[in-house]
Amino acid sequence: MYTLGERLDDLRLIAATDDGAVTAILTQRTNLRLQFAPGAYRRRTDAQLEFDLRVIATRLWVARTRAYYEALSDIKGEKITTERPAYGSRSQQYRTERADLTAHGACADNRIKVRVHGLRDWDVSIQPGTTAALSADEFVDRVGQATRSLLDDLQGKVRELKRRILSETR
């Protein structure tokens, strides 16, 4: 029987833009790979790709959340669709502060930056001229770097929040 962690590691989530020009595949929780329909990368502006990536990030997060609760439901043997109610003041404080967390990520050359606030509001910024300067493969690589950077920052902040609030003894 799989553990929850093993189930999440095995997830393969896919999200795309409405026109199907840009697709993202998320595997092993943090490996993001973009794919462009033939010719789509060169037809997109930096601003269009910022919008596309915000849409895809939101869709992937929704898919990830659904898959998490589906896996948890399978393991527990009961339908679970949301977090349980907070069970005390520290639990409530943790959830309140988690809902206000902001995590950031960027690729090595800072051409692409990503941000998430409250685990729900996604933002992407692409330095002007990036699509003209980079090939599609280089762009895909940089998006992967920025995504891993953001997820590392998010995991670290959530871990610190848990340590600070939930691990305290009072």
Sum up the structure in keywords.
3-stranded antiparallel sheet, 170 residues, 20% strand, Ybab, Chain: A, alpha+beta, globular
Question: What features would you describe in this structure?
Answer:
It is a single chain. The strands form two sheets. Strands 1-2-3 form a three-stranded antiparallel β-sheet, covered by helices on one side. Strand 4 and strand 5 form a beta hairpin. It has a single domain, classed as Nucleoid-associated protein YbaB-like domain (Ybab, Chain: A). The model has no long low-confidence stretch (mean pLDDT 93). The chain is of the alpha+beta class.
- Top-tier CATH class: Alpha Beta
Strand order within the widest sheet?
Answer: 1-2-3
Strand content: 15-25%
| Annotated CATH topology | Ybab, Chain: A
Mind telling me which CATH architecture this is? Answer: 2-Layer Sandwich
Helices and strands, in order, run as HEEEHHHEEEHH
Tell how many strands the DSSP assignment holds: 6
Total helices: the number is 6
Described by the principal axes of the CA atoms, the overall outline is globular
Q: CATH H level: which superfamily?
A: Nucleoid-associated protein YbaB-like domain
| Estimated helix fraction | 40-55%
The structure class reads alpha+beta
Secondary structure: elements and pairs:
Elements: H1 4-9, E1 12-16, E2 22-27, E3 31-36, H2 40-43, H3 46-76, H4 89-98, E4 102-106, E5 112-117, E6 121-126, H5 130-133, H6 136-166
Antiparallel strand pairs: 1-2, 2-3, 4-5, 5-6
Helix pairs in contact: 4-6
